[in-house]
Amino acid sequence: MSMNSAGATPPAGLAGTSAHPASWWAQFDEASDRFDAAKVTESLAEVITAAIASPLLRREAEIAADVVVRHLRVPQNEEMAARAAEGVNRLVTTVERLTERSTAQDTGIAETVALCHVLHGRYGDGAAAIEPVVGTMALLKAFMAALWLEQVDRDLTLRLLRAGQRPAQAVQSGLAVGKYGWWPSWLLTVVTERALAGTLDQAAIVALDQCAYAELSPRQARIARRLLAGDAELIDASARRLESLGEPNAAARLRDGDLTTVALAARMTPV
Predict the structure, then answer these.
(1) Count of C-beta atoms within a 10 Å radius of residue 50
(2) Helix 109-119, helix 55-73: angle, nearest 10
(3) Which range (36-40, 92-96, 120-124, 176-180) has the least confidence?
(4) Per-residue pLDDT, 103
(5) If DSSP codes are grouped into helix, strand and coil, which group holds residue 122?
(6) What gap in Å lies between CA 84 and CA 41, rounded to an integer?
(7) pLDDT reading at 15 higher than 70
(8) Nearest partner of 177 among 161, 199, 157, judged by Cα
(9) pTM of the model
(10) Which residues, other chains included, contact 175 with Cβ-Cβ below 8 Å and sequence gap of 6+?
(11) φ and ψ at 220, to 5 degrees?
(12) What is the C-alpha separation between 232 and 238, in angstroms, rounded?
C-alpha cells in the first residue's frame, strides 16, 4: 500500500513562511522516473529527527521512520505495509495528544509534524515545513541522495540550485551531464556554461553529442566552441567555407543558428 494514503492526516505544520514552497521541493520527484522513495524518506527522516528536542518523541519518530523505510524497500510486502501504516498512525496520534496538552515550544512537535508529512509520502510538504529549522542545504542533500540510481552530476546540480534554478531544470541538466560524462573536457565545459546560463535544452544536447562523436582535433574543438558561443564573424566564415565545399544547405542552417551543423563546420576546418 502507498504511504501517500495510509493512516491519518498529520496536523498543521510549522508556522511561518519557508524559503521554498512544497511545490518547489516536489520537483525533485517529478524530474526523475527513478526517484528513490525509500532513500529520500530515510535521508529526510535523519535530518528532521535530529532537530526534535524531546528524546522520547525523537525516539518514537525514529521508530516510525525506520518501519516506513523498511516498507518502501519492499513495497510488495503486505505485512510491512501494515506495520508502516500502524507506525505512522501511532506517531500522528502522539503528536495530536501532545499538541492538545503541551504549552512548551521546544518539544519538537512541529518538527515531528514535518516528519509525518514525509512518512505519508508528501516530501514537498515535509521539506517546506522543516526548512526554516534545518536550512536549505541539508534538505537539498537529502533529495539529491534519492537520485542515487541515476547518472546525475550532483556537483553541477547543486551549483545550479544555488544559482537559483528550479529543481526540475537543475536535475535535468545534472542528468544530461552525468549521462555524457565521457565527452571531452572542452565540451563538458560548454555544457556546464550552458546549464548555468539556463540554455541547455534538448536541441543543444543533440548538437553537442554530435560534436563529441566528431573526434575533433584541438584546433577544430576551439572552432566548435566559438561557433557554439555564437561568434558571428566565425559563423559567417564557416558558412562561406561550407558553401565553397558544396554544402549550401548546411551553410544556411549554420547562419540560422542550427547547432547541429557546428560539428560539420568544425570538421571542415583544416587540422
Answers:
(1) 12
(2) 10
(3) 176-180
(4) 56
(5) coil
(6) 13
(7) no
(8) 157
(9) 0.71
(10) 31, 32, 150, 151, 152, 153
(11) -65, -35
(12) 10
Evaluate the CA torsion angle 101, 105, 107, 110 in order and state its sign.
positive
Sequence spans of domains, the chain? 22-148, 155-267
Top-confidence residue, 134 or 2 = 134
State the first-to-last Cα distance of the chain, in angstroms, to the nearest integer: 62
72-100, pLDDT tens digit by residue?
Answer: 999 999 999 999 999 999 999 998 888 87
pLDDT in tens, 198-210: 888 888 888 888 8
Question: In sequence order, which ranges of the chain are alpha helices (DSSP H)?
Answer: 22-31, 37-49, 55-73, 78-101, 109-119, 123-134, 136-145, 154-162, 167-179, 185-197, 202-213, 218-228, 232-244, 248-255, 262-267
- Amino acid (1-letter code) at residue 146: A
Letter string b/e over residues 209-232, b meaning 16 or more CB atoms within 10 A of that residue's CB: bbbbebebeeebbebbbbbbeeee
The residue count of the chain comes to 271
- Cell triple for residue 99? 499538541
- The single-letter code of the amino acid at 108 is G
